[in-house]
């Protein structure tokens, strides 16, 4: 077990609704990344948070937003849900190297994911 | 063209065989490289980091070729438990972080 937890495990929403997914990072890890994984595909990088600020973002629209809290836990919010948002959402925590960069330098440890179905 | 490309497989090999995967990346500014494995309906798990000098962990060997922009994974004496999808990961972090997963290579080991 990685010590990274996510909630909820499964979620069913309808198109147009909003959803919040939660992630608790592994003890000692201060960086959290979020990914979307469609069936048969590799995880797609949504964004990364370090020190409560977004530290990098993939090709996802602004309706995908996030937060990181002082205890390094994180939330992913998705507004105006679309059918194509149905996927496994993974969060991963990693330790941060010193300096202003390096959030993507280190190994990541994944939570079990939240499976979102949009009807 | 995808930024990170992998042969999707499936690779179907007998137990005890040696199998190798390659993963190519397009951005020469890429800085960190990893291999993860993912079992069906589970989260990815780190297999190993990939260093310029190459690294080995038991039956697994990873190599990085920066000139040709690919990383490789070699599995020797394959076990039934090695059956999984293997994901390569390429990341940049000079300014903002950018982490790219390949689509994965499926490996099936048969008895």
Describe it.
The complex is a heterodimer of chains A (119) and B (111). Chain A has no helices and 11 strands. Chain A has strands spanning 5-7, 10-13, 19-24, 31-37, 44-50, 53-57, 64-68, 74-78, 87-94, 109-110, 114-118. In chain A, a hairpin with a 5-residue loop joins strand 7 (64-68) and strand 8. Mean pLDDT of chain A is 91; it is low at 99-103. With 111 residues, chain B is mainly β. Chain B has no helices and 11 strands. In chain B, the strands form 2 sheets. In chain B, strands 2, 4, 5, 9, 10 and 11 form a 6-stranded mixed beta sheet that branches. In chain B, strands 1-3-8-7-6 form a 5-stranded antiparallel beta sheet, with no helix packed on it. Chain B is globular, with a radius of gyration of 14 Å. Chain B starts with a strand and ends with a strand. The A-B interface holds A 2, 33, 35, 40-45, 48, 55-58, 90, 101-113 and B 4, 31-32, 34, 42-46, 49, 87, 91-104.
Note the main attributes of this structure.
heterodimer; A: mainly beta; 7-stranded mixed sheet; 4-stranded antiparallel sheet; globular; B: 111 residues; mainly beta; 5-stranded antiparallel sheet
């Amino acid at each position: 077990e990685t010590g990274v937890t996510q909630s909820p495990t499964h979620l069913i929403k309808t198109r147009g609704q909003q959803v919040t997914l939660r992630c608790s990072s592994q003890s000692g890890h201060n960086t959290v990344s979020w990914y979307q994984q469609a069936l048969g595909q590799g995880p797609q990088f949504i964004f990364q948070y370090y020190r409560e600020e977004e530290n990098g973002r993939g090709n996802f629209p602004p309706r995908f937003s996030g937060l990181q809290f002082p205890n390094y836990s994180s939330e992913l919010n998705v507004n105006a849900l679309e059918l194509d948002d149905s996927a496994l959402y993974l969060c991963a925590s990693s330790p941060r190297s010193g300096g202003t960069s390096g959030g993507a330098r280190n190994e990541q440890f994944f939570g079990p994911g939240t499976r979102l179905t949009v009807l | 063209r995808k930024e990170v490309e992998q042969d999707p497989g499936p690779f179907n090999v007998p137990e005890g065989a040696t199998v190798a995967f390659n993963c190519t990346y397009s951005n020469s500014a890429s800085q960190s490289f990893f291999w993860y494995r993912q079992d069906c309906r589970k989260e990815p798990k780190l297999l190993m980091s990939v260093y310029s000098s190459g690294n080995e962990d038991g039956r697994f060997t990873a190599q990085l070729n920066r000139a040709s922009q690919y990383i490789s994974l070699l599995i020797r004496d394959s076990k039934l438990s090695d059956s999984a999808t293997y994901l390569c990961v390429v990341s940049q972090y000079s300014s903002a972080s950018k982490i790219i997963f390949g689509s994965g290579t499926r490996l099936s080991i048969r008895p």
